[in-house]
Amino acid sequence: MSTDSTAQSQPALPSDRPKTALVVIDAQNGVLAEAWNTAEVVGTIADLVDRARDSGTEVVWVRHNSDELPLDSEQWQIVAGLTPAEGEAIVEKTHASSYEDTDFEDVLAARGIGHLVVTGAQTDCCVRSTIHGGFARGYDVTLVADAHTTEDLTEWGAPPPQDVISHTNLSWTFESGPGRTAAVKEASEVDFGTR
């Protein structure tokens, strides 16, 4: 009986990976400068980072670079109060989704991560693209209701930022699919010891 060595060398699917990661998306100076409720959101993320580290949960940072966020510029830097620790992955991206043209999936697979606890900015762009992208790829995805934010784009016809955040939290509670879960939790409800 022959075996397919290619199939044997494939990484485990997200549903078969036991670990959780706290994902911090685009918590950068240029992204959060005009965001709604920034100080409170950054404080909430900082607390989650501390709790994740204390529990041995991986923290994965995602950082965007673009014309508005040039590589190595002040705008591109992660905000004060949030500092990646040595050994924590930092994924660099140029598209809204953390998966597009990055090593994000390789980082998650290498660490055995199948559940993403997502925070950061912006709610209606990079956060939304990443939670949907992860769920479509088979990850369990928890959106932290009070740990993501966006800027005020009402001038261009968008709802006020707090409504964008509320609507995203509401709509994610209805996301479903076989073999994986979508959840919305307040930061105080996040338990890194459970999936």
TrEMBL record:
Keywords in alphabetical order: Hydrolase
Name recorded for this polypeptide: Cysteine hydrolase family protein
Domain Isochorismatase-like: 20-152
Molecular function, one GO term: hydrolase activity
Organism annotation: Brevibacterium metallidurans
UniProt-listed InterPro entries: Isochorismatase-like_dom, Isochorismatase-like_hydrls, Isochorismatase-like_sf
PANTHER family the UniProt entry points to: ISOCHORISMATASE, PEROXYUREIDOACRYLATE/UREIDOACRYLATE AMIDOHYDROLASE-RELATED
Signal peptide as annotated in the record: none
CDD domains linked to this entry: nicotinamidase_related (cd01014)
